[in-house]
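COMPLEX REQUEST
Ligand: zinc ion
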Amino acid sequence: MRILGIESSCDETSAAVVSGTASAPILESLVILSQDVHRIFGGVVPEIASREHLTAIIPVTRRALAEAECTFADIDAIAVTHAPGLVGALLVGVSYAKALAESLGKPVIGVHHMEGHLFATALAHPNATPPFTALLVSGGHTLLMDVEAWGRYRLLGATRDDAAGEAFDKTAKLLGLPYPGGRHIEALALQGDPSRFRFTRPMLNSGQRLGDDDYFDVSFSGLKTAVLHAVRASDDLDRDRAHIARAFQEALIDTLTAKTLRAARAHGRTRIVLGGGVACNRSLVTAMQGTADPIGGTVFAPPPRLATDNAAMIAAAGLFRYDQGQRDDASLHAHSSLPIPGLIAADG
Ligand code: KG4
Ligand code: ZN
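STATUS: Structure written out below.
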């Protein structure tokens, strides 16, 4: 079984070939073209993203096939991200995948982008398989889930406002750092003195109990405001910038690790799988492992190329959905938001 994956939900045009089975996927090739143009604007401009996908998608796909040393004839199915994301960007990938499927006489499989992120880590770590606690932290989403099995997901918590990556990007902007700011904050925080500033851990207090609606949820907009006040109050931002970055990152990491530990404990999980661009942050991964040690837990983080948006994770999730019998057709659509498939009741 060999699947071609296509991803175009935001500002990465990506194609990949994955073979094997859903439980033992083999990554044959992965090509990611990041649209650097958005840096000038300090954020993703949807129409520009769509146009860039349109010019990139065919060469990126051809390159992925060439690197896997195969042709369209060797592909059994085409998996494509169809939700969630920027609709105009998604439409490019969905339309191309449907046209390919139609002309090749092969099935097309619509994949949910966040289910893709769940499968990404297993491509690099064969033991990152269910059951596990998942923390997906990207520019657009922050989801805490219990993954009982592939295709059986309990959504435990989410952000009430900004996503974790968005909080990094907005804080970076306040500190005068380039977009996207996550890796710049991480680098700067390493030089910061943790005793200089301290921000309240958002939505985290010891009085919260399982069943409370804020037990697993997170919120980062207040933290961003705290950073804004610290920046405004500083009489020497060049001196304080690294200290503020450090304090911001520590508050965010403490919140994410504490909530993830609660989720692992609530469901008796010892494997914790991280995903999304913020999972590139080594301070987060190290802190998460420290938090998991007392419960004998192991943290699996994807390598950076599989943490940020990529088509390998879409192909891997597509392999699973293909095994489940999913086949889409010309009616496959793009959706800016859609619940992840396979949701079961959080307390079920
Ligand atoms: O998953 P992703 O590539 O795209 C979305 O689906 O949103 O995540 C991008 C996000 C950006 O907000 C970026 O600042 C953040 O991931 N990010 C990081 C790091 N590298 C990327 N955040 C913190 N530390 C990093 N090292
Ligand atoms: Zn993503």
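REMARKS: Residues 237-267 form the longest helix (31 residues). The two ends are 34 Å apart (CA to CA).
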